[in-house]
């Protein structure tokens, strides 16, 4: 044991014990984010314990699986050493005897639980060696006839060093002090059939025994519904306010749809789909405004987002500004560069390329072109947000596969476009932003987390695509699959062979990829097989990809580096090994690499049996549907929103009470109410936000 700390000499602060103790409690509570009385009042129970009843010990024996509360007299209390050191206490009532077992205990407990003491014990009963027993139950010493609580006992989310008793006391005090005024007007509440704030909160903290316990724990009780609604409403209001704040910022309008835009459209080998045209019109209208666009462009894999982005860039360039396109991987950035440069350079556009793998000289050259404004369209990776990259007149920022970037990275790119010469922040102009994502976000999530963005959806694929046929096949039929690959290649098809994902070790993943490549190259000795993985130098990657694009390679063995964006229309067969290790959206993205041409495409998902239930569900989903939105919806069901959203929301548990999987209807009501309040009753909106958001609003600023 550590030596007892020497007491510091008494000072003014330590003498004032009550105050010091109070500060200490406040400090502990602050660690849970509980600073104000309202914070405490809104710290709602995560569950309840029923201490309102005592059951006879004999009866408790039939209640396996539920916690039971008994009361009795201690008949023995011993420290035993077999099978290991433990405190064993026997308790008796009129109906029988029960053993309590403590593996961790304090010496003082043997005194507290001396023979003859009356105790109330709460815990799960199980059948042990010595009859009914409870392991580590909670208990307290009582006098005969001590009153039972009349309400269910709330159990609060807590943290280290913060006891339930402390929380209950602090919350109990706060409940007597807060301003109970309802933030929502009675007509709104009655139209939504919601109970009053005060009634709801008090009921949740101190439910009377007749309240349906099931409805409380499942959070379906109307009191919970009110809390969820309030929370969702605050979120909607906050997002809408963030949107309004953005609109009050300035941006340079990009109004010209001129020569470049026209010629570009004319030289495209295809016509835009109706969906692309609609989305383009939405973007074009935004770009004309003098406040920054912040639009999320969603469209399933292969729906043709790139050309829309290029047309947006053309409008920026036509208007005399620079546009930048950032992609998450070098392969993708490279592909964009090639494709867009091939479209635009013949039309006289100066396109620059900037990634981490450029040689120093090339990098300096690119930076000089960007800074002087000679480069009109700049394409690259994260390298774009590094120090030393200065834009001359950045009007439009495009982020491809935006979910791959963190908020900070996207913000950093946007900030490159701030006008450094303008010291007055309120007069600074901000570039327009277009974010693209092929991971469709289900409607509820989009409504909840992206209510501050404009959202455009390309909801149809270009014509002439045949849906990819997906087959799920046991790994033990791998040889059959290889001969099929062979046959397909001889017919002139190109094949992706995706190596297993090994999350724990990049080295192992690399080794597996190399081995897969070697065995396939040996087995398919009459075919030209290539290998691409993340560790290759950029030039090597590029060389392999180019050879595949030109059709010189028939089979491309690849790691997930090809997951996003890669576009080789002639590839029509994909094999994914150990498909059970991949997530649903990842499988969908990978599969999106085929089915880009007119040939019928096949995706083979090889799996290692036995499959767990989640993996089984995923593979079945892949077999059943090609629709990215449907896949996203099921993915959300399987994984929950936290994991689903990735960077934007990580670590930001904004919703504490509402559950997006079950409370979708409330989200819609909250959205409508938010719109109505902002328009008709802004003071109500203000008061509601003040009560609910507090510091959490910080999260939503970006
Ligand atoms: P994604 O939305 O996944 O980024 P891409 O922009 O890579 O999709 O487009 C997929 C393929 O479809 C590309 O080869 C592209 O040139 C082609 N494409 C895009 N729009 C059309 C269209 N309207 N008609 C025919 N092909 C198109
Ligand atoms: Mg793309």
Automatic annotation (TrEMBL):
EC number from the UniProt entry: 5.6.2.4
Alphabetical list of SMART domains matching this protein: DEXDc, HELICc
Enzyme class: isomerase
Domain named Helicase ATP-binding: residues: 286-458
Sorted UniProt keywords: ATP-binding, DNA damage, DNA recombination, DNA repair, DNA-binding, Helicase, Hydrolase, Isomerase, Nucleotide-binding
Annotated Pfam families: DEAD, Helicase_C, RecG_dom3_C, RecG_wedge
Gene Ontology molecular function, alphabetical: DNA helicase activity; hydrolase activity
InterPro entries, per the entry: ATP-dep_DNA_helicase_RecG, DEAD/DEAH_box_helicase_dom, Helicase_ATP-bd, Helicase_C-like, NA-bd_OB-fold, P-loop_NTPase, RecG/Mfd, RecG_dom3_C
UniProt domain Helicase C-terminal: residue ranges: 491-637
Keyword GTP-binding tagged: no
The reaction(s) this protein catalyses: Couples ATP hydrolysis with the unwinding of duplex DNA by translocating in the 3'-5' direction; ATP + H2O = ADP + phosphate + H(+)
Family: Belongs to the helicase family. RecG subfamily.
Function: Plays a critical role in recombination and DNA repair. Helps process Holliday junction intermediates to mature products by catalyzing branch migration. Has replication fork regression activity, unwinds stalled or blocked replication forks to make a HJ that can be resolved. Has a DNA unwinding activity characteristic of a DNA helicase with 3'-5' polarity.
UniProt-listed PANTHER family: ATP-DEPENDENT DNA HELICASE HOMOLOG RECG, CHLOROPLASTIC (PTHR47964)
Name by which UniProt lists this protein: ATP-dependent DNA helicase RecG
Organism field: Keguizhuia sedimenti
